[in-house]
TrEMBL record, chain A:
GO terms for biological process, alphabetical: regulation of transcription by RNA polymerase II
Taxonomic superkingdom: Eukaryota
GO molecular function: transcription coactivator activity
Known partners and oligomeric status: Component of the Mediator complex, which is composed of MED1, MED4, MED6, MED7, MED8, MED9, MED10, MED11, MED12, MED13, MED13L, MED14, MED15, MED16, MED17, MED18, MED19, MED20, MED21, MED22, MED23, MED24, MED25, MED26, MED27, MED29, MED30, MED31, CCNC, CDK8 and CDC2L6/CDK11. The MED12, MED13, CCNC and CDK8 subunits form a distinct module termed the CDK8 module. Mediator containing the CDK8 module is less active than Mediator lacking this module in supporting transcriptional activation.
Pfam families attached to this UniProt entry: Med20
Species of the source: Orycteropus afer afer
Record-given protein name: Mediator of RNA polymerase II transcription subunit 20
InterPro entries cross-referenced by the UniProt entry: Mediator_Med20
Location(s), subcellular: Nucleus
From TrEMBL, chain B:
Transmembrane residue ranges: none
Pfam families tied to this protein: Med18 (PF09637)
Identification of the protein by name: Mediator of RNA polymerase II transcription subunit 18
GO annotations of cellular component type: core mediator complex; mediator complex
Primary location: nucleus
Any one Gene Ontology BP term: regulation of transcription by RNA polymerase II
Localization of this protein: Nucleus
GO molecular function, one term: transcription coregulator activity
Family the entry assigns: Belongs to the Mediator complex subunit 18 family.
Keywords, ordered alphabetically: Activator, Nucleus, Transcription, Transcription regulation
Annotated coiled-coil segments of the chain: none
Domain of life: Eukaryota
Length: 212, 208
């Protein structure tokens, strides 16, 4: 586990999501990055069922329950700007029991899947973000393995990102700011994915012609 | 470098419906030593294990008549151990053929920000206590002998007071639903602890 930056790559002009993903992965292969299987990050949204609203009078908060193939036995539960709970996968069973209080928002499941590449100390994952049957965007995750303090290796990560993504290089993830000099952990990566998924959810759907 | 195993699908776990089979009893403080001695003889040969846990019971109230109850437990003597979140369903007494109380249960290991997270979910703490005692195992059976302490100042686990002059004894097995045969083994084991302690299937409704 190192320090990770998750960002969105816009679809290249005149290209489809799939073609843009291929462009990126080809670039990695040219660099000499080694293909290491696949990855998947998923996110299910739950909202407070109407039943609890009346008695507590608080606005319905959204809760996100996520999984990451990098941590196959864990389940991450998050609130926006709130705590991130790391639990084992029995947490999914608990959500079934909590059906009367928390309901999964219909058709809100969003996930990203793609190939995992190792390039020296960097782990790169380029994924297609899908919601239901439609491709909604591209996620790029870059992890620098040997360091766990974000502020110590951000410039190194940035240099790699600039080489790889060019003008689409992201700024420092907000989770870095919250935890200055603190040890970076898996929960920070999940917060970044949650933010990315929320951003993509709000964006216009890619026209059907562009999906293929 | 060897590629780590990466599965395409995250393992979305435990759809299996797990049940806890439970027998309960109690011993007075002065009988503790002889019970422990007996258990050491009967149970799996392992290092004597003790525990000191802080348990908080959280409620989520909705419009339903009964609130949703979750138990958060942390070890006070093993720092760095994960927190334990537990859901327990309605206990079923069943008929005479089943020798133990049965209730649905979900056990989850979590990170240490569990209480903050439960509050964020809308849960409120109802009560808390400290449990201190001994743990034994025999196969899949778990035997806990422990004393419950009342917390005098909320949140401060340093000032506690014993709730009674006795120890609670619990014999439990967590198994997939429908495996009622485990209650036979439990009864046989409970027989061997007589007359030091009488473990029974106690209907919690009777105590209310």
């Amino acid at each position: 586990m190192g320090v990770t930056c998750v960002s969105q790559m816009p679809v290249a002009e005149g290209k489809s999501v799939q073609q843009t993903v291929e462009l990126l992965t080809r670039k990695l292969e040219m660099l000499g990055a080694e293909k290491q299987g696949t990855f998947c990050v998923d996110c299910e949204t739950y909202h407070t069922a109407a039943s609890t609203l009346g008695s507590q009078g608080q606005p319905g908060k959204l809760m996100y329950v996520m999984h990451n193939s990098e941590y196959p036995l864990s389940c991450f539960a998050l609130f926006e700007n709130g705590p991130c709970l790391i639990a084992d996968t029995n947490f999914d069973v608990l959500m079934v029991k909590l059906k009367g209080f928390f309901q999964s928002a219909k058709a809100s499941k969003i996930e990203t899947r793609g190939t995992r590449y190792q390039y020296c100390d960097f782990l790169v994952k380029v994924g297609t973000v899908t919601m239901g049957p439609s491709a909604r965007g591209i996620s790029v995750e870059v992890e620098y393995g040997p360091c766990v303090v974000a502020s110590d290796c951000w410039s190194l990560l940035l240099e790699f990102l600039q080489n790889f993504l060019g003008t689409h290089t992201p700024g420092a993830p907000t989770v870095f700011g919250n935890r200055h000099d603190a040890v970076y952990g898996p929960a920070d990566t999940m917060v970044q994915y949650m933010e990315l998924f929320n951003k993509i959810r709000k964006q216009q759907q890619v026209p059907v012609a562009g999906i293929r | 470098m060897e590629a780590p195993p990466v599965t395409m699908m995250p393992v979305t776990g435990g759809t299996i419906n797990m049940m806890e089979y439970l027998l309960q009893g109690s011993v007075l403080d002065h009988s503790l030593e002889s019970l422990i001695h007996r258990l050491r003889g009967l149970c799996d040969n392992m290092e004597p294990e003790t525990f000191l846990d802080h348990e908080m019971v959280f409620l989520l109230k909705g419009q339903q008549a009964s609130p949703f109850v979750l138990r958060a437990r942390r070890s006070m003597d093993r720092t760095g151990a994960p927190w334990h979140l537990r859901y327990l369903g309605q206990p079923e007494m069943g008929d005479k053929n089943r020798h133990a109380l049965v209730r649905n249960c979900v056990d989850i290991a979590t990170s240490e920000n569990l209480t903050d997270f439960l509050m964020e979910m809308g849960f409120r703490m109802d009560h808390e206590f400290v449990a201190k005692g001994h743990l034994f195992r025999k196969g899949i059976m778990k035997i806990m002998v422990y004393k419950i302490f009342r917390i005098l100042v909320p949140g401060n686990t340093d000032s506690t007071e014993a709730l009674s002059l006795s120890y609670l004894v619990e014999l439990s097995v967590v198994a997939p639903a429908g495996q009622d045969m485990v209650s036979d083994d439990m009864r046989n084991f409970a027989e061997q602890l007589k007359p030091l302690v009488h473990l029974e299937k106690i209907d919690p409704k009777r105590l209310m």
